[in-house]
């Protein structure tokens, strides 16, 4: 089976990439599985694109192989786009999904359901040594719930209600999430590139 390195240390993302790539009979290998220890990349960019490129290019240069990176996050209209690029560390260091959820719910206390619109964004960057980096962008529109529910997925899934659904992303099965998510929206656009890896 062919392999594709995914420049992530997030086990939730890694699991989703494994499922997508398995359809093309490609083994998606995250940084958590490599035999060598890879230092964390400082995500110093101010945009999802910059951070995705930083992660993909640094790991690709280190391993001298094609690498795919994902920079993603939650954009909440009533919070002027926050947590945005700071989604992973919205409630501070070290990153903590539950603290992030608690902070969003606190910040949105008293905000009317009609004004709780938000979207997940995913930027994928593919870095191949000696080639130009490829970018793909995916969205998933929805709104922020008033309390958390569900245990599937990761990150902000327990408070995100995708448009067209009445439950949170974390209450939907992984299969459904993988059909509607920002990550799948972006990955589908890479299909032609992925197929030539087979
Ligand atoms: O940088 P890597 O190692 O890939 O892992 P990370 O968790 O730090 O990832 P990001 O820098 O891209 O930050 C993305 C954050 O946005 C949130 N997020 C992204 N995709 C999500 C999803 O599908 N469901 C819920 N939350 C998500 C979650 O809090 C992530 O930690
Ligand atoms: Mg990160």
TrEMBL record:
SUPFAM superfamilies: ITPase-like (SSF52972). It is an enzyme of class 3 (hydrolase). Gene3D superfamilies: 3.90.950.10. The keyword Nucleotidyltransferase does not apply. Pyrophosphatase that catalyzes the hydrolysis of nucleoside triphosphates to their monophosphate derivatives, with a high preference for the non-canonical purine nucleotides XTP (xanthosine triphosphate), dITP (deoxyinosine triphosphate) and ITP. Seems to function as a house-cleaning enzyme that removes non-canonical purine nucleotides from the nucleotide pool, thus preventing their incorporation into DNA/RNA and avoiding chromosomal lesions. It comes from Lentibacillus halodurans. Belongs to the HAM1 NTPase family. Mg(2+) binds at residues 42, 71. It comes from the Bacteria. Keywords: Hydrolase, Magnesium, Metal-binding, Nucleotide metabolism, Nucleotide-binding. GO terms for cellular component: cytosol. It catalyses: dITP + H2O = dIMP + diphosphate + H(+); XTP + H2O = XMP + diphosphate + H(+); ITP + H2O = IMP + diphosphate + H(+). Its cofactor is Mg(2+). Coiled coil: none annotated. This is dITP/XTP pyrophosphatase. Substrate binds at residues 8-13, 72, 154-157, 177, 182-183.
């Amino acid at each position: 089976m062919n392999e594709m390195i995914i420049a992530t240390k997030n086990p939730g993302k890694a699991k989703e990439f494994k499922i997508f790539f398995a359809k093309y009979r490609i083994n998606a290998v995250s940084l958590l599985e490599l035999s060598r220890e890879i230092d964390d990349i400082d995500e110093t960019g101010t945009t999802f694109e910059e951070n995705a490129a930083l992660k993909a290019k640094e790991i690709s240069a280190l391993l001298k192989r094609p690498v795919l990176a994902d920079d993603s996050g939650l954009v909440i209209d009533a919070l002027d786009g926050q947590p945005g690029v700071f989604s992973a560390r919205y409630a501070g260091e070290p990153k903590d999904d539950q603290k992030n959820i608690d902070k969003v719910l606190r910040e949105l206390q008293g905000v009317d359901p009609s004004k709780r619109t938000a979207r997940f964004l995913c930027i994928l960057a593919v870095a191949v040594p000696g080639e130009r980096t490829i970018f793909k962008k995916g969205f998933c529109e929805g709104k922020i719930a008033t309390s958390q529910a569900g245990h599937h997925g990761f990150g902000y899934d327990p408070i995100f209600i995708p448009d067209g659904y009445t439950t949170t992303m974390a209450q939907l099965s992984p299969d459904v999430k993988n059909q509607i998510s920002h990550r799948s929206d972006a990955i589908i656009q890479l299909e032609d590139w992925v197929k030539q890896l087979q």
